Amino acid sequence: MKHPLTPIARTLRKRSTKYERLLWRHLRDRQLGDFKFRRQVPLGSYVVDFVCFETKVVVELDGSGHATKKGRAADAIRDAALAEADFQVLRFWNSEVTKDLPVVLETIYQACQARSPNQETRNAKPETKKP
Known about the structure:
The chain is of the alpha+beta class. It has a single domain, classed as VSR Endonuclease (Endonuclease, Chain A). The chain is built from 5 helices and 4 strands. The protein has a 4-stranded mixed sheet, sandwiched between helices. The longest helix is centred in the middle third of the chain and has 16 residues, at about 70-85. The chain is globular. About 25% of the residues are buried.
């Protein structure tokens, strides 16, 4: 049976932001340490931007709406629910993806590496392709 949020996730994939598209170019096809990521995936009551199910790492990209008091509160509730399901949530501002992409990729790689059941076999370092 299809998850009730699947249609929303599908729409979000079609309408991804330029920041999501940029990061996806580096996460897709196991380019980051051979970790498999999916984008705009229903997970519990939420649709997450990116997830690696093998390592249970979720990556969220945040725009200005997340900087408000209400946005931060909603993110805290969401992060707690995902943590309860044993997912580690990494949050990055959209501007970080454009200004510090190598740092963002290294942070994601390190989190996946630390949680990987095959830690000793994951030696591929992240590489930043030209846009």
